[in-house]
Amino acid sequence: MTKPVQRHNRERTPMRLLRLFIALLFAVAVTVALPLPAQAADVGVPGPSYAGDGVRTPTADKAQSKLWIQDGTWWGLLWSASANATKIHRLDAATQEWQETETVVDARPNARGDALWDERGGKLYIVSGTTVLSEWGSPPSREAVTSGSAELHRFSYNPSTKTFSRDAGFPVTLHKGSSESITVAKDSVGKLWVTYTVVSADNTNRVHVNHSTTSDSAWGTPFVLPTTNAQAHHDDISAVTAFQGNKIAVMWSNQRSEQKRFYLAIHQDGQPEKSWQTEIAYGAGNNCTGGCANDHLNLRQLTTDGSGRLYAAIKTSAQQPGQTLVALLVRDSNARWTSAPFGAVEDAHTRPMVMIDQERRQVWMFAVAPEGGGTIYYKKAPLDNVSFPPGPGTPIISSSTDLDINDPTTTKQNVTGQTGLVVLAAARSNARYWHAAIDLRN
What is the pTM of this model? Predict the structure, then answer.
């Protein structure tokens, strides 16, 4: 009598185990599947299209800023497909929609701008230059380099109508020819400064600088930054900023085989135009050895606490897993440079950008991954103890359909809880803008 029971138990036990195993698999599958809808859902806000005019990368380049804050509102340089021009747009805080204004900045589809709102003077400056896109092994053609130009635009703001209007006498041509990137800053004595790189006959870049003289519309002759390190690779870029209340700084990458460093040149306001002191910001044993430079650079300054620190988001040429690919460099008031890794080679970040929340004393850093475009991630850290967690970071702009979102940009200004933080980007294949608005009050 016991044998059938034993045989019956032997037959049922595997079935119970099988059902239990299936149930466990289902439970695990459900548990794993639960986060997937959130990951697949869009993060950020899709915006207007820039298709139809041959515009390729409207939110580039890495060193430039397309946004600014004025009168409690975020404004931006966005291409208008209907007007066939870059126009000033206003971000509606309630609807999170970019509203096109009547103000045209530049009608050239290959011109990319850098915007500076000068609170002290009450003027909006935009330097807009036609661009050449160069790759590591393929310098741009001479025709591409010599065509086009860079222009300075200046606008005044009317608070009663909440509109910008172009000032008389602008735009002003700053230089003939195209460059990969051009940026603008204003010093303490009222001079405007620009920097850009120009490809020379030997296929190297030279870091150029120019400045205004007697007025915003009167400019001197462009000159190569007076340092031997200003002869860089044809793929390198430069950026300019005012800092410490009385200085102008130009930072650039140098990927030449014997260099591969980031440099900073400093000019004291009011001194002769070719009086500069140069220092190594990253490389040659200063926080890095080996392949320390790539043409990815984004600068911010901190002046609210009197320290005059500079923050630079950079990308290296590292290629081995575990090595730092993207980092944040910090220069203190004593000219000491430190670095904080943001992402390793395996994280595949690109186009890093840095922002400062001066009220909460936090630094925000953004980067795209993978390198061909996709999702924009962020990490944040205390200003006085910068250290980022490992991994890609938290998505801030991502799409299930626009899979190549790239080129994040924001404002040169430091942000607060009142202003919040806005990041603008572009999806290349579908030619559409995306943005994210971060509430800093929490």
Answer: 0.89
